[in-house]
Amino acid sequence: MLSLDEARAAAAAVLDPELPVLSIADLGILRDVAMADDGRVVVSITPTYSGCPAMDVIRRDVEDAVHAAGFDRVEVRTVLSPAWTTDWLTESGRQALQDYGIAPPSRRTTSTGPVALSLSVRCPQCGSPDTRESSRFGSTACKSLWVCNACREPFDHMKAI
Amino acid sequence: MTMPALATYALRLGDDALVLSHRLGEWVTNAPQLEEDVALANIGLDLLGQARTLLSYAGDVEAAGRTEDDLAYLRDEREFLNVHLVERPNEDFAVSMARQLLFSTYQLALYERLQDSADPTLAGMAAKAVKEVDYHRDHATQWVLRLGDGTDESHRRMQAGLERLWPYVDEVFGTDDLEQSLVADGIAVDASTLRAGWDGYVDGVLAEATLTRPEGTRTPPGGGRRGIHTEPMGFLLAEMQHLHRAHPGASW
Ligand SMILES: [Zn+2]
Which CATH number is A21's domain given? Predict the structure, then answer.
């Protein structure tokens, strides 16, 4: 008899196709893995952005992964609320992004005070805080484009939302 | 055919997002700089995601078996319920940036309120999208400031862009019995109540951009919410729908 934990582990290990160093668990978009009364495994995921084109691929990859773990019937549901925020990114996920060359998002919780704090984005290559945004929109909906003034390298930054 | 009021309301909001998404897609490879191609494609993608949620939901509520694709690709012009502002042609880049400011300021105010809707799907869609649209409004604001308070030529064209689209603003804040019936149930937002906040924000941006709020423009009769559209809408739909209709049922 297969346990729900095995289904959960299989789903959690699926990688985001656009950020292939992050699992969907690290990204914080895996919401729930449950067993329905009829034995189906029901996996709930939530999109990062409304139009994220990776969602269709992730849905298929989750189905395949849970099937491969030995579960015959899998249903992947998309839930919208509560809405995803970058604060759901795990600590290991943030580190993986950084190592991959993408500056992780600053934490939203730092800007809830009376004065909105704009923390500088550190260059993932050299670590310098002397960086500037070159475009608010990057190669995917979740990223913006930055340039490091110290080492001159351009880099992606995952936007805090 | 009469749809339930809730389905019609979801279609109205979904069609606004879908049609504007298409217009933004037309800028890809045509924007003034590469970063702007990427930015407008991203904004269009956000809107397309919102449209997919809203059209799917309209189909579910209608319960006649129509999917998001059926609603996007197989309805004719008279069945589209978007406002005219989103269907007008792109023309000059400044016209498009004027539209982005005028529309995203409205849409942000709408979604901020719709987050508290008694309808969980509309509330969830709005709570998700409100952060995206905040970004859209910021992007538009930056461009309107840059062009308005830029060179003589950019100022002239930004002002012309505003004049071009200003006549379509009133329709956006129109309300009707259908909307009011859903407002009474705590489901919909009364669009007319969003106007004051919109005026405040847009006026602030125009002042900072040294632009003049257009006065005395002729207001066309509107009718988008009832399926009556301006001439460019048919051309837009022809382009948006022809592939799907030429290959019924194709998927990839
Ligand atoms: Zn650097």
Answer: 3.30.300.130
Question: What's the ipTM?
Answer: 0.80
Q: What range defines the domain where residue A34 resides?
A: 4-84
Distances (CA, A) of A157 to A97, A134, B91, B184: 9, 11, 32, 44
Asked if residue B153 belongs to a domain, the reply is yes
Query: What is the residue range of B10's domain?
Result: 5-246
Q: How far is the CA of A108 from the centre of ligand 1 (A)?
A: 23
Domain end: A37, A60, A84, which one? A84
Q: What is the pLDDT along chain B (252 residues), one digit of tens a residue?
A: 578 999 999 999 999 999 999 999 999 999 998 889 999 999 999 999 999 999 999 999 999 999 999 999 999 999 999 999 999 999 999 999 999 999 999 999 999 999 999 999 999 999 999 999 999 999 999 999 999 999 999 999 999 999 999 999 999 999 999 999 999 999 999 999 999 999 999 999 999 999 999 987 778 888 999 999 999 999 999 999 999 999 988 876
Q: Indicate the Cα dihedral angle A19, A25, A31, A33, nearest 10°.
A: 120
| Cα nearest neighbour of A46 on chain B | B128
Contact list, A135 vs chain B (CB under 8 Å): 35, 38-39
Based on the domain organization, do A73 and A135 belong to the same domain? Answer: no
Count of domains in chain B?
1
Phi, psi of A158 (to 5 degrees): -75, 120
Contact B48 A134 (CB under 8 A): no
Residue B98 covered by a domain: yes
Strand pairing of A154-158 and A102-103?
Answer: parallel
B125 touches A at CB < 8 Å: yes
Contacts of residue A55, Cβ cutoff 8 Å, sequence gap at least 6 = A45, A47, A78
